[in-house]
Each structure stands twice: as C-alpha cells, then as structure tokens.
Design a protein that fits this description.
By secondary structure, the chain is mainly alpha-helical. Helix content is 67%, strand content 8%. Strands 1-2 form a two-stranded antiparallel ribbon. A hairpin with a 5-residue loop joins strand 1 and strand 2. The longest helix is centred in the first third of the chain and has 66 residues. The protein starts with a helix and ends in a 6-residue tail after the last helix. The model has no long low-confidence stretch (mean pLDDT 82).
Amino acid sequence: MRGIWQEIRQSGDAVLKGAAGLAVVCVLGTLLVAGRALSGAHSLQTAIDRDFALTAAQQRLITGLAEAPRREQSGRVEDILQALLRQPEYGFRYLAVRDAEGAMLAADGRYESLNRSSALTPALRRWLRATLYTLRGETGL
C-alpha cells in the first residue's frame, strides 16, 4: 500500500511541476502581449497628438493670415509661429511655413539660437541643431 501511495504522490508532484511551468509560460506570454499592446497604444497616441497639433497650427495660420492685410502677412506668420512654439499643449520644438512651391516663408524653433553662436563652426552648429531636433521630438510635415 505504501508503494502505491508514493507512486501516486510522485506522479502528482510531476503534474504540479508541469502546471507551474505552464503557468510561468502563460504569464510571460501575457506580459509580452501586454507590452506590445502598450507600445502600439503609445505609437497611436503619438500619431493622434501630432495630427491634432498640426491641424491646430494650420488653422491658426489660416485664420491669422486671413485677418491680416496682405502687406503684413509675413510678419504675422512669424508672430503666429512664435505663439505656437510657446504653447506647451502642442509640444512644438520647430515650425516652418512653406508656400505651395516649397519655398520657406518663415521658420522658428527652440534651438535656432545655436545659429547665432559664434563659438561653434557653421557645420557643427547645423549638426548640433539637427541632432537636438531629432532626439527631442517627432517630425511631421
């Protein structure tokens, strides 16, 4: 009788070990799926935020230009860009306005002061400025 009881107990331990291993695999799988879901949600939210901010910026520019007389529009664009850069809810670090042909009408950004630094070479200023914009934010057009 004792031998049968030991055999049942040993096979029960093996079943428990197998179940514990399966539980660990399930937990790890669940964590992997949850991590991928969070990453996807973050990417989606970033895209939604960028679209919202760019749409709001376009509306501000259109409204501001429509209200300004033609001869004052150039200065008005720069004022609007500076106002948009100061609004933290949009998170802009750099904005540029181009016409239909792609010519730059106005541009402003948080790191533009690097262009005025005489302590750095022009190539180093361009590289540093581009690196800061790339590392510190998303890009959109």
